[in-house]
Structure formats: structure tokens, C-alpha cells
Protein: Probable mitochondrial saccharopine dehydrogenase-like oxidoreductase At5g39410
Organism: Elaeis guineensis var. tenera
Amino acid sequence: MANDDPQTQAFDLVILGASGFTGKYVVREALKFLGTPNSPLKTLALAGRNSSKLAQSLAWAAAPSPPPPIPLISADVSDPSSLLALCRRTKLLLNCVGPFRVYGDPVVAACVEAGIDYLDISGEPEFMERMEAKYHEKAVKVGSLVVSACGFDSVPAEMGLMFNSRQWVSPAVPNRAEAYLSLESETRIVGNVGTYESAVLGVANAGQLQELRRSRPKRARPAIPGPPPPKGPLIEHQKSVGLWAIKLPSADAIVVRRTLATLTENPHGLQGVDETEEHIEKRKNFWSTVKPAHFGVKIGTKSLLGIMRLIVTGLFIGLFGQFAFGRSLLLKFPEIFSLGWFRKTGPTEEEVRSASFKMWFIGSGYSNGSLALQGGGKPDAEIITRISGPEIGYLTTPIILVQCALIVLGQRANLPKGGVYPPGIVFGPTDLQERLQENGISFEVISKKTLSR
Ligand SMILES: NC(=O)c1ccc[n+]([C@@H]2O[C@H](COP(=O)([O-])OP(=O)(O)OC[C@H]3O[C@@H](n4cnc5c(N)ncnc54)[C@H](OP(=O)(O)O)[C@@H]3O)[C@@H](O)[C@H]2O)c1
């Protein structure tokens, strides 16, 4: 008999931080799949430290329908016993409480302690790598799957690189792929202050990431045909996609490198906990078509002036973020120092609705792998692919997170028993790409051409 006691009932999924700006959009996305035919999501609860804010979030997410009877559970990240009690009542926890380097560790600790699965939307490399160093072994042992970066950071980069690399059919091989991100809007592009805070703290913690890496064993490096790409100019005019672009210091390239390192160490991907022969075959086939490449991400705008605005914002965060007084100024006046990119009250619903993104992947490589050793290794082939979708932070991120959650709930046997991993190596061979396409995020091949050497 089902347990309907609100104090002890168990759930398929709990969303922690459901009262946050992103959290409420994640709740809205999850409700679309709750109890629908064939959905593995039958029971859901929302968790956070303030039950009236959780109730407001649920009402907003369900509108114009009345809020469904979903339990609201009290849990505070500064109270480990509340987290452990929460984790003991669910199969999977989605964490929307950030900045993750401040609040994330006790949540991962509780999930691993309880042996449940965990996904988050962190875009903070130091947090992700610290969680891997601290909890991977125990997570493997107890069967707790911990995957960070299941949002715009960094699933489009992971899936987009794989999609581009799979277009290179033998004997052709890629050498590099550069992703160009373009954010578009009919009104204004605005982010909530939560993401800005995470970025500011990221600058402050950059040194800790270097220190952590120095203390860890070196990861395997993939064998990539041809030389590494040359360092380009600070500002690039990329004619093929009509954008002025600069390097984007996001987590994407770091997360992709972790996936490629794990793939190099496990050339057939990660074994599922209870896979069928058919799925083993499918997984091996999938990974045999993914060819590693050097990878970087740039952000682009149509005008040079737009790039200048990005550079000034980056300089403010990069310089002021390094010392305490500078950080307090950045955090006190987000709109001023981000030149309007971030707002304390977040974007309006209209601003969210009217925004979208395009991410081009310009892959360069060789029409035949043997050419990598000739002519200074200059690429002679180019394949351009593109991912596009709705607004990145509050529409695309919830779509990705919820689809990853549905895969964990519905296809657990095909996923690794446990461990701390980046999303690409876990979800690459699943139907995540098809699911994203069905939910408004498209993957396209734009062009394939030969380059003069
Ligand atoms: N991957 C991506 O592309 C992506 C996209 C969007 C956002 N994000 C990340 O998501 C995170 C959240 O961003 P946001 O804009 O939604 O921030 P936000 O609006 O400030 O939400 C933060 C949430 O954390 C909760 N929280 C804070 N302290 C807590 C505690 N001690 N115990 C329990 N809950 C606590 C807040 O609860 P209260 O309501 O009670 O304060 C709120 O629900 C950020 O790290 C951001 O970078 C990532």
C-alpha cells in the first residue's frame, strides 16, 4: 500500500532550493512530467528552508492551475541532519541551491551518505572537482550517482562537442572544435544575481582549483590527431557565423575535458549497473563514434560594441573579484558592475520568454587522419554544427535538468552504479539528445566543407 503520510512518505524526486529563481522554473518544468503516462516521475516533493517561499514557488509554477498537493519539506544546508532525513526519503535529489562552493558540499555528502542519486546545475569547476576528489570512491561503493553541471553549464557544450565529433566519419577525424555562443533577445538579456554571485566567487576561488589539481593524480589525456590549435587573438571576428567573439571563462571546456579524460580511461564508456546485452552493444557503438578534439568556448555578439560591453564586465569581475572589498562592491551593486547583464530581482517573465541562444561548433580536422602528420598538421576539413534553444538560465537549464532526472529515474540500469562524474560521460549514450530535441533544443549540421591547406 502506498505511504501517504506527509511525515514519512518517500518520493521519486525532491527539488532542493525550489524557492530560488532558477528553482521555481525547475519546478514548473518538472510538473509537466509528473504523473503523465509513461513518466517515471510519479511522486515529487519540494524542499528548502522556508516553507512559505516553497508554497509561493509551487503556486507560481502551477499557475494558472491551482497548486497540486505536493509535499513541502523543510531542509537547511547548514543543518546536515535535515539534509540526511530528506535524502532518506527520495531516490533522486535535484540541487538548485547555489553558489555551490558555499552551499553544495553538505548536500552531496548527505546524498552519498544515504546512497541516493544527485544532479545539480552548478557551473563552478572548483566545486565539481572538489566533490569528485572527496566523494567519488564512496559514491561508487554505495551506488550513489552524483552529476554536476546538468544545466546550460555544461550539457550543450558536452552534447554539442559529441554531436560535432560524430559527424566526422572515418577516415576523417576532428582536431578541434570551437564553440561560439550567441545570446539573443527581443527585449533584454538579463540573468538573476545567483549566477553572478557564483561567477564572482569563482574568481575568488581560482587559486584553490589549481591547488586541488596539483594534489590529485594526473588524468589521462585523449590522443587527438594533429597539433594543438594556436592561441588566437583576444577578439576574433568569426565570419562563418557572423560574430565578434572572445573566450568565455565558463566551466564548459573544463567539464568536457573531464568527460574526455574519463572516456580515455574507459574507452567503451562507463558500464551500467544492470545493463542488457543490447544496451552494452549500444553504449560501445556510441562511444566508438565519438572522437576527442581540442575544445574551447567563446561568446559572441553581432557588433564590436557588444563585445566591448562583455570585456568591461569581465574585467570588473576578474579584477574586483580577487579581493574582499572588491567582491563586496561587486555583490552589492550587481547591475552597475555587470553593466545590466544581471539584476537582483532577476529577469521578468517577458525577458525570459523573449530570449534564446545559438551555439555554433566549428570543428576543424582532417579528411583523412593520415594528413595530421603532413603539412604542419594544418586542418583540411571543417564541419559546422549548431545547438539552439530558448533562454539559457531559466528555460534551457530546467529542460536539461529535468530530462537528465527522467533518464536517471527511468533508465537507472543503464547508468553507472555510482560515482561522481561530469554529465557527458553519463548521459552521452542515452537518449538525452532526442529528449532535448523533443523539448525545444535543436541539434543541426550546418555545413561540411574542404579547406585549402
Ligand atoms: N548551470 C546553469 O546554466 C545555471 C543556470 C541558472 C542558475 N544556475 C546556478 O543555480 C544557482 C542558483 O541560482 P539562482 O539564481 O536560482 O539563485 P537564488 O534565486 O538566490 O536561489 C538560491 C536558492 O538557494 C536556497 N538557499 C540558500 N541558502 C540555503 C540554505 N541555507 N538552505 C537551504 N536552501 C538555501 C534559497 O532559499 P531561500 O529562498 O530560502 O533563500 C534559494 O532557493 C547558482 O549557483 C547559479 O549559478 C546555473
Q: What stands out?
A: Residues 17, 19-23, 48-50, 53, 76-78, 96-100, 103, 121, 123, 151-153, 192, 194-195, 198, 393, 397 surround NAP (CB under 6 Å). The chain has a mean pLDDT of 94. The chain has two domains: 11-147, 155-393+429-450.
